[in-house]
Structures are given as C-alpha cells and as structure tokens.
Amino acid sequence: MSVSTGRVQLDAPDRDGHVGVVVDSPEGYDELVRPLLARGETRGEKMITLGSPDPVVADRAGGLMRCCDALLRGLRSELELARQQGYSGIRLIADMHRLDLQSLPARELFAFELELDRAVTELGVTMVCTYRSDLFAARSVGVAMCAHSQGLGINRHDLGFRFWSTGDHQWKMMGEIDSENADTFQLALAKAAALTSRLTLTFVDLRFIDLAGLQTIVETVNTFPDLLLTLERPSHSFRRCWGIFGYAQLCPRVVIAP
User: Fold this and answer.
1) Torsions phi, psi of 178, nearest 5?
2) Contact 143/186 with Cβ under 8 angstroms?
C-alpha cells in the first residue's frame, strides 16, 4: 500500500462528529482547530476542553477519558448539563498529549479512539482529538486517525483506511485494506463485533481490499460464533472475489447486501 501525505486527509468537517487533527506547531493548531471552535460557538454549543492545565479539571477529564465504561455516562451528564444551561449541545476538544496518552501502544490508542467514536456517535456530539506530531510516534498517530471519519493535518503514517460508528451497531469503512493495515482492521472489526450479535458494515468508497482483508472478515466471524455480519454496498470486485475464494460457502453468517 502506498502511503500519501497530504495537508487534508479527508474533507474538512461540515457536520458534528469525531474529528482527528494532526498539528505540527502552535500556528498549525490555530489554523486547523480554531475554526472548529468558532463553528461550535456559532451553533450554540458549550466548549469543553479535555486535558486542561488546571490539575482539578485535568484529573476529572483524565478519569472520564480513560475509563471506557464510564465514558458514555460522563458525556451524557455533560450534555444534559449543557442543555440545562441553554446550550444546543457540547463540543469536546481533547489535546491528547495532555491526557498523557503518548505512552499507549498504538493498538490500545486505536481501541480507545473507537470507544470515543461510538460514544460521540450515540450522543450526537462533536469531539475534536488533536495529536501533536512532535509528541506522538507517527505510527501511533496514523493508527489513531483510522478511528476518525474526518481528519485534518499532515498524517505522515496514514494507514489508508477509516472505520467509524454510525450508531445502532452499524459501522462504515472507507479507503484500502491490505496486508499492511489488516491487523488494525482486525482490531476495529473485533471491537465492533464484541458489542453485538448483529453487525452491519457499510463500505463507503472502499477502493481496494486484498486477500488479507477478506481473511480478516472470515476470521472475525469465526471468532464470534453468534455473530451475523451484514456487508452493505460492497463493490462488484469484492463480490466476485468473495465468491471465487469460496467464502460464501465457508462463511454463511456473512450476508452480502445490495
């Protein structure tokens, strides 16, 4: 897989959601993040900064971010409070280095971001996760960005695919899947499959998936014996390869939808 480096990896966000931003400098932060803050203010959202220098706020935010079981409850409480105060919603700004996440292995960071994505989607709020390229390994940033449907900045180790929640045990995927990123794809699929026995994965501009990606789907379904996986909008070439390699017979709990 060829890895390209661009200033903007995906379209600039024009709706609420889970946004990943890679920043190289204070000037880069102002250029990329400040407009997102202004947009939230225009929409009447309450700004909440996770990773504040204030020790009390930092401890509270760190606990909220690190405990995935409490994450959804914490965000829901913040949202209810904001609405009581007259705001239309909340917009969370997370400077990931201030949450002391630099030491997390890339796979754990990705799993954490998937949990964030699911929570943000369920509540319908916006979360902007900023990664400083001088404080995080390029590989870790590249993996973490895979859990954001929208991203800004120079992602020097772009893995080439995105995987994000649309709610109700439905996820979307775009980009390319091959042997170089199949392990990250496997983690994403396993995290989603662990939450339900009926999972829907929609292909959004999935340009390429090789045998490693196909095998990852099969292995995930075999790992979760109660799982029924529906694949929506697969390309003609995907359908053809699925049939040629005999997966339709070997993996009947995978449903290929129109």
Assistant:
1) -145, -170
2) no
Q: Output the CATH code of domain 1-158.
A: 3.40.50
Task: Tell me which residue has tokens 């070997």.
Answer: 250
> Environment class of residue 233 by beta-carbon count within 10 Å: exposed (0-12), middle (13-18) or buried (19+)?
middle
170: β partners: 167, 200
The reply to whether the predicted model has a pTM over 0.90 is: no
Count CB-CB contacts under 10 A for residue 101. Answer: 24
* Contact (CB, 8 A) for 104 and 137: no
How far apart are alpha carbons 211 and 177 in whole angstroms? 9
Angstrom distance (rounded) from CA 213 to CA 219: 10
pLDDT in tens, 14-59: 456 899 999 999 898 999 999 999 999 999 999 998 865 444 444 4
Q: What are the structural domain ranges in the chain?
A: 1-158, 160-258
Residue keyed to tokens 């909008």: 233
Which amino acid is it at 38?
Answer: A
Q: Does domain 160-258 have CATH number 3.40.50.1820?
A: no
Strands in the chain per DSSP E: 18-23, 45-50, 89-95, 126-132, 150-152, 161-167, 170-177, 198-209, 228-232, 254-256
